[in-house]
């Protein structure tokens, strides 16, 4: 299920540059990924099933100890014992965990990728894969996570207030329950009101340049977001379609 290629380029400075959790039931794949990432300088935790993986996430999120750094990335297999990858994503996203997730699966159809991304995964890698590609995707996810932190305390547009550092959105004085992708789309729009974004630009900004899929994913997320922020989603006031170009906010 794994392609053995030349070793990934090792970091010149082998200091800890992030903590990664690998949740994978196939021991060979799990240990190979762990070894590769440790050689890159990452601190690596592993779990052989979804239930154990959730226990690790919960333990870290509930700990205030300075000796326990937060998770920077989760590498998650789709087919897992006890709690599968899709349910794992649903649980931690519902609990407000925004840690990037790279999903691994032997299922490579477009629908499988779309479902994985829509339940909260940030990227999707189909087995078999090479270690160089996996390391590159991990770096890209970590880079986007660190660059994507907004310095603004809050963003306000009419009856919508978004708090970037708290990952909260208030719509007409009621807190909206947005998924991580919906939150990032709205944050991008509110940082650039009235700017028109094409579907391709939104895919690159929110899903990243390595995303494998089509623009229908954007349309689905825009529809879901409208259902949560618009009084009448079929006649939106905030998220407007600009026919032939894409979408704009306001």
From TrEMBL:
Modification sites for 4-aspartylphosphate: 77
Positions of the DNA-binding region: 152-250
Pfam families cross-referenced by the UniProt entry: Response_reg (PF00072), Trans_reg_C (PF00486)
GO cellular component assignments: cytosol; protein-DNA complex
Annotated OmpR/PhoB-type domain residues: 152-250
Keyword annotations of the record: DNA-binding, Phosphoprotein, Two-component regulatory system
GO biological process, one term: regulation of DNA-templated transcription
InterPro entries: CheY-like_superfamily, OmpR/PhoB-type_DNA-bd, Sig_transdc_resp-reg_C-effctor, Sig_transdc_resp-reg_receiver, WalR-like, WH-like_DNA-bd_sf
UniProt name for this protein: Phosphate regulon transcriptional regulatory protein PhoB (SphR)
Domain of life: Bacteria
SUPFAM superfamilies associated with the record: C-terminal effector domain of the bipartite response regulators, CheY-like
Chain segments annotated as transmembrane: none
Residues in Response regulatory domain copies: 19-142
Record bears the keyword DNA-binding: yes
A Gene Ontology molecular function term of the record: transcription cis-regulatory region binding
Organism (species): uncultured Synechococcales cyanobacterium
